Amino acid sequence: MDFALSEEQQELAAIVRAALAKRADPRVETYDEELWQLLVEQVGVPALGIPEEHGGAGFTLFEALVALEEVGRALVPSPLLSSLVTSEALLAGATEEARGALLPRLAAGEVAAFVDATGGAGPVVADVLDGDLATVLVAATDDGLWALDPDVTTRAWTASMDQTLRLARVEVEVASATRIGEGPPAATRAALVGAVGVAALQTGTAARALEMTVRYTQERVQFGRPIGSFQALKHRMADMLVRLEMSRSASWAAAYAVSSGAADGERLAHVAKAYCSEALAAIAAETVQLHGGIAITWEHDAHLVLKRAHSLGQLFGTARAHRAAVPLGDPAAR
Question: How far are the Cα atoms of 77, 178, 244 from residue 211, in angstroms, in the given order?
Fold first, then answer.
């Protein structure tokens, strides 16, 4: 499938990239609230995929994922993925009344988190993106979709390898929650959007890794020449570029299919998450190798790429799990 961003989508990506370039800091403890408000108020990032009747911008999920790729490129902590997953879960499973009450809050920039508690019996404890920061907390069970009260829900930050992704352990207790819709369709949509969302983050992170590697090899001199002029290193960076471009193609194809409700959306989401996970792992390894000793210092961003590659490879399903979910009889998957 040949696909390219429209002029408006390219402009959106450029605006988000410029805003992030001015003040993105991968090392903030949770996330930069001023940067988040900038993206909310001046770009409307969390509102992109939310319908206008619910306070959103009325674009599509695809535009939101274009912005998410730029967040991945910046390596910046951001509640965008968790809020995006929650908004899509609400659109898929919540009642119209609940959508009207909650979606405008997400569009206005409140941090949201979604808990998939389907398939469990009794109270379920799950590790959730931004679960301890969310002011809108939604959970899906087999019996319904629930709005949890953040003030009484037990939740606590969980340490993870990647400091730019924040996880919290959340206990789902529906006795003190409000039923707002159907759980299974919300959980299904959240898993699908989570997979393509992570693929977008992985693509952006891979782009950042390649950029910093090319720049470093142009500056690092050995034997009187920039190391980027050595043929062997050129070949390795060319391989990184190929993986990046294939990741972007897989990510965009899946994002468009899931956004438009295409019949092959689920298959493409599995393909994208599987490929982008393994591509970023390979690109991150090369980034560390080609930077040499500086890559393992705290001051350089190379270690952030490596940590994010590992964490995103697990988030919303491993590459192996997504490959297993692709039908073997599908000719397009061969």
Answer: 19, 47, 11
The residue behind tokens 């391989």 is: 239
- Rounded CA-CA distance 286/199 in Å is 19
Nearest CA among 89, 110, 112 for reference residue 180:
89
Collapsing DSSP to helix, strand or coil, 136 comes out as strand
CB 178 within 8 A of CB 97: no
Residue 94 gets which letter from DSSP?
B
Q: Note the Cα 59 to chain centre separation in Å.
A: 18
pLDDT tier for residue 334 given thresholds of 50, 70 and 90: very low
* pTM strictly above 0.90: yes
Mind listing the pLDDT tens digit for each residue in 222-233?
888 988 889 999
Cβ neighbours of residue 227 closer than 8 Å, sequence gap 6 or more: 217, 220, 221, 233
DSSP H stretches of helix in 147-223 = 183-219
Report the candidate in 76, 86, 69, 87 with the shortest Cα–Cα distance to residue 35. Answer: 76
Q: For residues 287 and 291, what is the distance between their CA atoms, to the nearest angstrom?
A: 6
8 Å CB contact between 72 and 201: yes
In order of start, what are the domains of the chain with their CATH numbers? 185-333 (1.20.140.10)
Pick from 56, 74, 53: nearest CA to 64: 56
Q: Tens digits of per-residue pLDDT, 63-111?
A: 999 999 999 999 999 999 999 999 999 999 999 999 999 999 999 999 9
Tokens for 146, please give them: 């629930």
